[in-house]
UniProtKB/TrEMBL annotation:
<dbReference type="GO" id="GO:0032299">
    <property type="term" value="C:ribonuclease H2 complex"/>
</dbReference>
<dbReference type="GO" id="GO:0003723">
    <property type="term" value="F:RNA binding"/>
</dbReference>
<dbReference type="GO" id="GO:0043137">
    <property type="term" value="P:DNA replication, removal of RNA primer"/>
</dbReference>
<dbReference type="Pfam" id="PF01351">
    <property type="entry name" value="RNase_HII"/>
</dbReference>
<keyword id="KW-0540">Nuclease</keyword>
<dbReference type="GO" id="GO:0004523">
    <property type="term" value="F:RNA-DNA hybrid ribonuclease activity"/>
</dbReference>
<keyword id="KW-0255">Endonuclease</keyword>
<comment type="function">
    <text>Endonuclease that specifically degrades the RNA of RNA-DNA hybrids.</text>
</comment>
<dbReference type="GO" id="GO:0030145">
    <property type="term" value="F:manganese ion binding"/>
</dbReference>
<feature type="binding site">
    <location>
        <position position="82"/>
    </location>
    <ligand>
        <name>a divalent metal cation</name>
    </ligand>
</feature>
<feature type="domain" description="RNase H type-2">
    <location>
        <begin position="75"/>
        <end position="264"/>
    </location>
</feature>
<dbReference type="InterPro" id="IPR022898">
    <property type="entry name" value="RNase_HII"/>
</dbReference>
<protein>
    <recommendedName>
        <fullName>Ribonuclease HII</fullName>
        <ecNumber>3.1.26.4</ecNumber>
    </recommendedName>
</protein>
<dbReference type="GO" id="GO:0006298">
    <property type="term" value="P:mismatch repair"/>
</dbReference>
<dbReference type="InterPro" id="IPR012337">
    <property type="entry name" value="RNaseH-like_sf"/>
</dbReference>
<keyword id="KW-0464">Manganese</keyword>
<dbReference type="GO" id="GO:0005737">
    <property type="term" value="C:cytoplasm"/>
</dbReference>
Length: 266
């Protein structure tokens, strides 16, 4: 392509349609154009392509466990992660995600390391490419009846059970799920070490955030849209002022309830 015939604006518009992996060919052609503005663009594209290469290397490292398990003959590997063990209100949510072997979703990572906006984008991409996704939700009443650890394990069981395709291996973030009769491996900080677990962490996080945003419409006084049920100063103050709802985990609120006998249940 003879870029010399195009304006800088036209070139930039064209580049937006070019996949990152094709940047070297575009850069090679642009280097023939001696305009200073175009040469500045070349430097920008070279920088972007370098970042892209570094991201591919990071993703390759995140496939380490998946590759080792595939070498052992397993094929359907589900990554499992949970969100919501710490909040004072709302459910604990787990996700089980089976990704294709050739999955290269850029910037997939531990959901805690990603901005809400990027999480939403990655959520949609994961939903598009995943072989299967299962969600497990355990509410506050069940958490109080069991305990948060066992409730989390139950949510993981539900997530796996909700998969349409039965996985033959599970990669789980920092948990042992012996009650699930499938070969598995627990990985400490797995959401930053395994692409499957990272995908599950994003699906679980966005799912739970959306649930809490819907509950905010029912109970706006707790600002669930902001705190997602976590014990922020504003949330704790609202509990003392308005009482607790059916969404609140009573077993997590013993100290607050003890210090305020006027707290009521809605």
């Amino acid at each position: 392509m003879e870029f010399e015939k195009f304006t800088l604006l036209q070139i930039k518009k064209y580049i937006k349609s070019v996949p990152l992996e094709q940047y070297p060919q575009v850069i090679e052609e642009l280097e023939k154009d001696q305009r200073k503005s175009v040469q500045k663009l070349v430097i920008t594209l070279q920088r972007k392509f370098k970042i892209y290469q570094e991201e591919l290397k990071r993703l390759d490292k995140m496939k380490y466990y998946e590759k080792k398990i595939i070498e052992r003959g397993y094929r359907l590997i589900a990554g499992i992660d949970e969100v919501g063990r710490g909040p004072l209100a709302g459910p604990v949510v787990s996700a089980a995600v089976i990704l294709p072997e050739d999955c290269n979703i850029l910037y997939i990572n531990d959901s805690k390391k990603i901005s809400p906006h990027k999480r939403e984008i990655l959520y949609d991409k994961i939903k598009q490419v995943a072989i299967d996704i299962g969600i497990g939700i355990v509410d506050a009443q069940r958490i109080d009846k069991l305990n948060i650890y066992d409730a989390t394990k139950e949510s993981m069981y539900i997530a796996v059970n909700n998969l349409n395709k039965k996985p033959d291996f599970l990669l789980i973030d920092a948990m042992q799920c012996d009650h699930i009769p499938i070969s598995q491996k627990s990985i400490i900080k797995g959401d930053s070490k395994s692409i499957s677990i990272a995908a599950a962490s994003i699906i679980a996080k966005v799912t739970r955030d959306r649930i809490m945003e819907e509950y905010h419409k029912i109970f706006p006084q707790y600002a669930f849209d902001k705190n997602k049920g976590y014990g922020t100063e504003e949330h704790c103050r609202a509990i003392k002022n308005f009482g607790i709802s059916f969404l609140h985990r009573k077993s997590f609120l013993k100290n607050i309830l003890k210090t305020n006998n006027n707290v009521k249940v809605e």
